[in-house]
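Work Package 4 report. The design task specified in the project plan requires that, given a folded chain encoded as structure tokens, an amino acid be chosen for each position. We show below one input record used in the internal validation round.
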């Protein structure tokens, strides 16, 4: 409460500035990669330096040591987001994004989500991919885990699956 004690005004404001506020002309905030730095597991790795954690390290520029690679019989990779959260977009950076042969880009794969790590729902079925980077947008769903199942690792006879980065976004 403000109380005046004279005949003049209580306040005399000559200048003011408004800051922040997220007005209509402010750019939207940058999307947050929910998978960045989160725990990742996989069926196998081609080498110790090509483990599942490399697909969520935020980089594609570290050469062969900056990717997840698998030659296992069932090639899968998954990330634990830590808590169930709303997801709606996945970005996969394949072999070509890391500077390797584009024929090694993941050709056929599914992306699945789960809230408990046991029951999975297929959200994306990508087939005949040749792109270095693929973006997959779905209707928002709740997920704690996101899994990549590789059905055909490459567009040639090479049998290794290679993913340089896997990103998960709210939308």
């Amino acid at each position: 409460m403000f109380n005046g004690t004279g005949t003049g005004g209580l306040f005399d404001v000559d200048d003011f500035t408004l800051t922040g506020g997220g007005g209509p002309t402010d750019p939207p905030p940058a999307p947050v990669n929910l998978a960045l730095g989160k725990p990742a597991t996989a069926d196998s790795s081609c080498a110790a330096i090509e483990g599942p954690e490399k697909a969520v390290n935020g980089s594609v520029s570290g050469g062969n040591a900056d990717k997840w690679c698998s030659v296992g019989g069932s090639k899968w990779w998954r990330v634990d987001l830590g808590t169930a959260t709303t997801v709606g977009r996945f970005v996969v950076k394949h072999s070509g994004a890391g500077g390797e042969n584009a024929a090694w880009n993941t050709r056929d794969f599914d992306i699945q989500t789960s809230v408990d790590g046991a029951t999975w729902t297929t959200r994306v079925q990508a087939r005949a991919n040749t792109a270095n980077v693929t973006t997959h947008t779905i209707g928002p769903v709740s997920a704690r885990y996101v899994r990549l199942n590789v059905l055909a690792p490459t567009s040639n006879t090479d049998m290794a699956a290679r993913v340089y980065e896997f990103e998960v976004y709210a939308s």
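The chain has a mean pLDDT of 91. Validation will be extended to a larger panel in the next phase.
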